[in-house]
Design a protein that fits this description.
Number of helices: 15
Number of domains: 1
Strand content: under 5%
Number of strands: 0
Shape: globular
Structural class: mainly alpha
Radius of gyration: 20 Å
Order of helices and strands: HHHHHHHHHHHHHHH
Helix content: over 70%
Length: 430
């Protein structure tokens, strides 16, 4: 492809920077799913690969990013702004916790990138190994606090790392491909560097004269983490953009049956998510494992998980905030609004989503603008926010959404082949 490496850095980087900033507005795993879906859809727009299953890429990106979103990190960030002797421990903890986000998210994306290498049972076994590794690492290291990066909160970083390693390792072995390791490695490198860098910039900002009601340095930290996370994944996709194709991507079905099935699966997933699922420390690990299996089994379900679920969970978060913390609006009206705005997206997925570039662009722009507008609705409903840093953040989100829209429309199909790095013919038996 005749497209500069800068496209592969800036477009996914900005997409995940916005997504990670929005993640902070809506909560952890499902909030992180916004960033995962956006960065993968941006990569798909750049790659224009006929052998990719775009819906599966979106689903695995969303769910993969959600896994790491379960890890607590607020008190770890606090360590870097306390006494000097806490700085090494704080930055080490941030690098580890950022790295596990990249490891899990990248491994899932790498599997979706090589979808044709795997059977349904491979995803089931890989998901089961991830769950087992997460529990084992948590039980052996995190629960007894053998290495601890917080003050009084429960951690699970060792479990997520072991689970991610088992997922990437099994998939690479079973599919005879290094792609899960490649995306996991670059994702871990980017997010592992982005988190401590963002915390350092936050600390500098809070100690500068430019601190006060108009500056949200915490949000700068989040967006910096997302930016470098996206840069790592984008560079990996550029480096291996011409890897040997495995065949055509999967085509999605359509019709009322698809709409009904998608709505049922998405509704069940959101309900399980908000009831905290199976395990109190990492419930999304169990839910996400099931979503990976469901997405792999059906391309149409994959589109619903990567797009409909991401929007629906975000809308539910706003509804819960309105009815809980703010105690405004009538509950019936609020839930009717959630349903009335989610159903058109589910209808589009069921009737229009295909394994083509137009569907990817539509899905990308839909998630960019709907999640940004939901952030506006959530934050600006409070009159006090109109005169503070939260208002500035929402303006920045809008500017980023405009820039991403321009980039998505500008990322047109290349006219000439590129001569970038390639996998050799032996990549089928890597």
């Amino acid at each position: 492809m005749n497209r500069s490496v800068w496209w592969y850095l800036l477009f996914p980087g900005l997409a995940m920077s916005l997504g990670w900033g929005l993640r902070g507005q809506f909560g952890h795993p499902m909030g992180a799913a916004i960033a995962g879906a956006l960065v993968v859809l941006a990569i798909c727009l750049l790659l224009e690969r006929e052998d990719l299953s775009y819906g599966l890429m979106a689903a695995f990106g969303a769910v993969g990013a959600g896994f790491g979103g379960q890890e607590t990190y607020g008190q770890t960030v606090g360590l870097v702004s306390q006494a000097p002797w806490n700085l090494p421990l704080g930055y080490l903890g941030l690098a580890i916790k950022g790295g596990l986000w990249g490891l899990l998210g990248g491994a899932a994306i790498g599997i979706a990138f090589r979808r044709q290498r795997f059977l349904w049972r491979d995803i089931v076994i890989g998901a089961a190994l991830m769950i087992a590794g997460t529990w084992l690492g948590w039980k052996l290291v995190n629960e007894p606090k053998r290495v601890y990066f917080s003050i009084d909160r429960a951690e699970a970083w060792a479990g997520f790392i072991l689970g991610g390693l088992l997922l990437a390792g099994y998939a690479s072995w079973r599919g005879s491909t290094r792609m899960p390791w490649r995306f996991a490695g670059w994702g871990a490198l980017g997010a592992g560097a982005g988190f401590p860098l963002g915390a350092w910039l936050m600390t500098l900002g809070m100690q500068s004269p430019f601190t006060g009601r108009w500056y949200d340095w915490w949000k700068l930290m989040e967006c910096t983490l997302g930016l470098l996370f996206g840069l790592g994944l984008g560079y990996c996709s550029w480096r291996y953009r011409n890897s040997v194709p495995d065949g055509r991507g999967s085509e999605a079905g359509s019709g009322w049956r698809s709409l009904l099935l998608g709505v049922l699966v998405v509704s069940a997933a959101i309900a399980v998510y908000y009831t905290r699922g199976v395990h109190p420390r990492f419930p999304f690990t169990f839910l996400g494992a099931g979503l990976l299996v469901a997405a792999f089994a059906s391309e149409q379900l994959a589109w619903h998980i990567g797009v409909t679920m991401v929007y629906g969970a975000t809308a539910v978060n706003v509804a819960v905030y309105w009815l809980g913390e703010q105690k405004i609006f009538d509950p019936t009206v609020v839930w009717l609004l959630v349903i009335a705005t989610t159903l058109p997206i589910a209808w589009w997925v069921a009737r229009r989503a295909r394994n083509d570039r137009r569907s990817v662009r539509t899905a990308f722009l839909t998630l960019v603008w709907t999640t940004t507008l939901l952030s506006h609705l959530k934050m600006l409903v409070n009159a006090r926010v109109l005169l503070g840093s939260a208002f500035v953040v929402e303006v920045i989100f809008t500017v980023m959404a405009v820039a991403l829209t321009w980039m998505a429309l500008k990322a047109r199909a290349p006219q000439t082949p590129d001569s970038g790095p390639r996998d050799s013919a032996r990549s089928r038996c890597e």
